[in-house]
Amino acid sequence: MRVITVNEGGCDPSEITEDIYRDRALVVYQRNDRSTPELDRISSIDMAPIVFAASIPDYKELMKRNEELKREVSEGKEREERMKEELATMRQRLRMVEEAEERLCSELGDLEAEAVIQARAYKLQIKYLCDQLKLSRGILGSTG
Predict the structure, then answer these.
(1) How confident is the model at residue 61 (pLDDT cuts 50, 70, 90)?
(2) Residue at which a domain ends, from 13, 34, 53
(3) Do 47 and 117 fall within a single domain?
(4) Are 2 and 17 in a shared domain?
(5) Claim to verify: residue 83 and residue 24 sit in the same structural domain
(6) What is d(CA 23, CA 1) in angstroms, rounded to the nearest whole number?
(7) CB pairs under 8 A, 24+ apart, for 41-47?
(8) 45: containing domain
(9) Does the keyword Coiled coil apply (predicted)?
């Protein structure tokens, strides 16, 4: 049950009734001898399972702190959403980079294979030309 104890030091109980109904809390007024209709009306509300007792200044400070915490939670959620979006963007960029790397590796492999084929062809051509030169020298040497 949520209970708020209010000291009446010059404060109008109707000021906090809205907060009480909004927070679904039971308010206990610290009075010596009088009872209030607000207390009877509020006590019939379903109560939350939290006990809270405060004087009016403490209550206002706690409500202010509660609003600050709600704002911080909201900011934290917004920051979390931004970070999730940034993470999704980074994951997408990472996928693109990985795909580009795969394409480059594939192209590099193709170029290496082509270079090997060209090197073999040039080697065969050089061997053929060396054989031709040797044969030409042999012919020139025998005739001369």
Answers:
(1) confident
(2) 53
(3) no
(4) yes
(5) no
(6) 12
(7) 42/17, 45/21, 47/1, 47/2
(8) 1-53
(9) yes
Q: Are residues 64 and 44 in the same domain?
A: no
Res. 55 pLDDT band, cuts 50 70 90: low
Angle of the 13-23 helix axis to the 56-143 helix axis, nearest 10: 40
The CA radius of gyration of the chain, in Å to the nearest whole number, is 44
Same domain, 82 and 67: yes
32 and 85 co-located in one domain: no
- What letters, b where the CB count within 10 A reaches 16 and e where it falls short, cover 42-73? beeeeeeeeebebbbeebeeeeeeeeeeeeee
Instruction: Tell me which of 50 and 111 has the higher pLDDT.
Output: 111
Residue 125 tokens, joined: 């051509």
| Residue 65 vs residues 14, 59, 62, 71: alpha-carbon distances, Å | 22, 10, 5, 10
Do 76 and 123 reside in the same domain of the chain?
yes
> How many domains are there within the chain?
2
Give the pLDDT score at 141: 85
Tell if the pTM clears 0.70, that is, is over it. no
pLDDT in tens, 16-53: 554 554 554 555 544 444 455 444 444 444 444 444 45
Does pLDDT of 71 surpass 50? yes
